[in-house]
Amino acid sequence: MPGDIDHAKRALRADLRERRNLLSDQQRAAAETALTARLDQLIAATGARSISCFLSTTTEPGTRAFIRAALTRGIRVLLPITREDGLLDWAVAGSDEEITMGLHGLPEPTGEILNPMALDEVDLLLIPAAAVDRTGMRMGWGRGYFDRTLGSMQKCPPVYAVVFDSEILDDVPHDVHDQPVTGAVTPLRTVVFPLT
């Protein structure tokens, strides 16, 4: 039942948010360093030259060092910009990126805005998540931006959720609109989920 699923998601999100808040600055820094290496390996393995990523908040697995390194190697990185209508616009990351707080208080790039179709040109999607399960079902934070984005793409490249190691769970509550991912990248491992 939808009400039960929503309640289960809210409870799990609250637990995951609390766990993230308990991480020390040293744990976060070590996780970002390890995650950067994992993401670099994924880029090398896939041969991706154009990717999407996201500007991590202070409690998310850190992506900013990875983005800087990717730009240095000539990788084109698109970053999401939230819209009032529930869709995502995109901006090309720059090395001297200015950051503003977008809708919902999330960090977003400034600069030229590209429409949602810009995502059709990327080779790999790296997206945030609260958790993923062992089948590849992703649970986000409840706003639906990435579920709508993935659900609307006609030709979707590989999609990897970026999470902490403890956020790959046996299963997550999900509804019909929730979208699965190809894999997950954590500070300690990269997981590819079986096709269902």
From TrEMBL:
InterPro entries named in the record: FTHF_cligase, FTHF_cligase-like_sf, NagB/RpiA_transferase-like
Binding site for substrate: 55, 60
Keywords in alphabetical order: ATP-binding, Ligase, Magnesium, Metal-binding, Nucleotide-binding
One GO BP annotation of this record: folic acid-containing compound biosynthetic process
GO molecular function: 5-formyltetrahydrofolate cyclo-ligase activity; ATP binding; metal ion binding
Keyword Magnesium: yes
The organism's place on the tree of life at top rank: Bacteria
Binding site for ATP: 9-13
Cofactor(s) it depends on: Mg(2+)
Reactions mediated catalytically: (6S)-5-formyl-5,6,7,8-tetrahydrofolate + ATP = (6R)-5,10-methenyltetrahydrofolate + ADP + phosphate
Matching SUPFAM superfamilies: NagB/RpiA/CoA transferase-like (SSF100950)
One Pfam family recorded for the sequence: 5-FTHF_cyc-lig
Stretches assigned to coiled coil: none
EC number(s) per entry: 6.3.3.2
NCBIfam families per UniProt: MTHFS_bact
Family: Belongs to the 5-formyltetrahydrofolate cyclo-ligase family.
Protein name: 5-formyltetrahydrofolate cyclo-ligase
Species assigned in the record: Microbacterium azadirachtae
